[in-house]
UniProtKB/TrEMBL annotation:
Source organism of this protein record: Fusarium coffeatum
Domain called Aminoglycoside phosphotransferase: residue spans: 48-154
Domain of life of the organism encoding this protein: Eukaryota
Phylogenetic classification of the source organism: Eukaryota, Fungi, Dikarya, Ascomycota, Pezizomycotina
Listed name of the protein: Aminoglycoside phosphotransferase domain-containing protein
Length: 212
């Protein structure tokens, strides 16, 4: 394992286990206190439980009086500031310009200088199940409907975007492409490489008619 200059982040460099590791865990009570502060609720009105995790994020379910639900996602600093800020900007752009269903962001912090020591996003809970788990049990008509819905969402994004570069979105509005956030560029010492992280759109530069 190689230590990282990015707080809270270690890298497993073994040949078959390469990936990010948590140097230390978020403290549940600190996460709960932060959620109560941002939602302006008392401790007896708010219940927080661990929901799941990926390689970069830990997710908590926030329930208010067994009625309203939120999701608190705590993230490793794989690309400090840019990853979290880019995710929030992408959600905001989708809400402003498309009909793609995305959660509303309640609050976020793209710095680890806060009471839990990690970047985080607090957002509405969307009570759905991944198609990954449902697909094999769905009828063909249901699969066709889902596929058409996904295609409609993709077409909506393509037709509503007029960006002149390739990168992760930056805000506030009007949102624009900025530094690319990608795990291959963030992995271990790749993060320190002096390489371009924003690229022009080749279609718009060379074939303006194809870019619109």
């Amino acid at each position: 394992m190689a230590p990282s200059a990015r707080p809270g982040l270690l890298w497993d460099t073994r040949p078959f286990n390469q990936g990010p590791l948590w140097e230390y865990e978020p403290v549940l009570e600190d996460v709960a206190a932060l959620c109560r502060e941002k939602l302006n609720v008392r401790p007896d009105e708010c219940d927080i439980s661990f929901l799941g995790e990926g390689c970069n994020n830990k997710v908590y379910l926030v329930e208010i009086n067994d009625e309203k639900k939120y999701v608190m996602r705590v993230s490793l600093a794989v690309d400090p500031k840019y990853k979290t800020a880019g995710e929030v900007s992408t959600i905001e752009w989708l809400q402003l310009h498309t009909k793609v269903p995305v959660p509303k962001v309640i609050s976020f912090n793209d710095s680890n200088k806060n009471s839990i020591g990690f970047e985080w996003i607090l957002m509405d809970y969307m009570p759905e199940q991944s198609a990954f788990y449902r697909w094999r049990k769905m009828s063909m008509d249901e699969k066709i409907t889902v596929t058409k819905d996904v295609a409609d969402c993709l077409m909506d994004m393509v037709t509503k975007s007029n960006f002149n570069g390739i990168g992760t979105l930056q805000g506030p509005a009007p949102h624009r492409p900025g530094r690319i956030v990608d795990m291959d560029l963030c992995y271990n010492d790749h993060y320190n490489l002096d390489i371009p992280r924003l690229f022009p759109d080749p279609h718009r530069d060379n074939h303006p008619g194809l870019g619109r």
